[in-house]
Structures are given as C-alpha cells and as structure tokens.
Amino acid sequence: GQDDVVVEAADLHLPIGKPVKMVLRSVDVLHDFYIPEFRAKMDMIPGSVTYFWFTPTRTGTFQVLCAELCGQGHPLMHGVVMVDTEQDYLAWLGQQQTFAQLSAPQKTGSADQATASGLDVAAKLETVEAR
After folding, report:
1. Domains with residue ranges and CATH for the chain
2. 11-15 and 78-84: which strand pairing?
3. What is the C-alpha R_g of the chain?
4. Burial class of residue 35 (count of CB atoms within 10 Å of its CB; 0-12, 13-18, 19+)
5. Which of 23, 24, 117, 130 could bridge 44 with an S-S bond, Cβ 3.0-4.6 Å?
6. Percentage above 70 pLDDT, the chain
C-alpha cells in the first residue's frame, strides 16, 4: 500500500472523487484544521486524535487555515489542499518517498573503502595496545 508515504511539503494533494479520512492531532495547544471552500473543520486537541471524512468534488487549489487562536504563530498556520485528477494525483504520489526509503541507511562508500579504513583503525588500535 501507499499508507507509509511521507509528505515533506506544506501542500496536501488529494484525488478528486475519493473519500478522504483526515486524521488530526496536536502536540501543543488546541488548533482547528479548516478548509473554508469544503466547509470542513475539525478541532485538533492535544493528547487526542480527531478525524473527519470528506470527498473532494472539484479540482483546484484550496486554502487551509487554523481557525483557533492558538498562540504567537497562529497567523503563520496556513497551507493549501490541491485536489488533482486521478492521473495527476498518481503522478505526484509516485514522486513521494516512503518511510522505508527515508529510513534506509545511507551509503558512505564502497566495501573496499570500508575494509581498508577498518584495517587501518585496527592497526592503530593494536599499536596503542602494545605500548
């Protein structure tokens, strides 16, 4: 499945005509996820998970706001929902990395380089131990 896709951008892409379950949580204070054009709004409560369902019915770019005065950063809490055709959505989804891809160990060099470095370190350790 694609349920482990990690979205690192501020834009939320959704496919047109497909039911969406929006799962929300807050780690600090009360917030309110609000998409005015969809008339969709849900509180985000610290320590709780809230959710709501909706189905996007037209393509376009729509504003997302925090509708709860939540602190000093409140005016900066906004984003966009982009409702795409199925083809555009699948193309966008194909460009996203999965959690497994982001968690994979990074390659640091070839095995020969690692072995050579390991032998060099071992030789230095033996020298230190011999003194």
Report:
1. 5-130 (2.60.40.420)
2. parallel
3. 24
4. buried
5. 24
6. 73
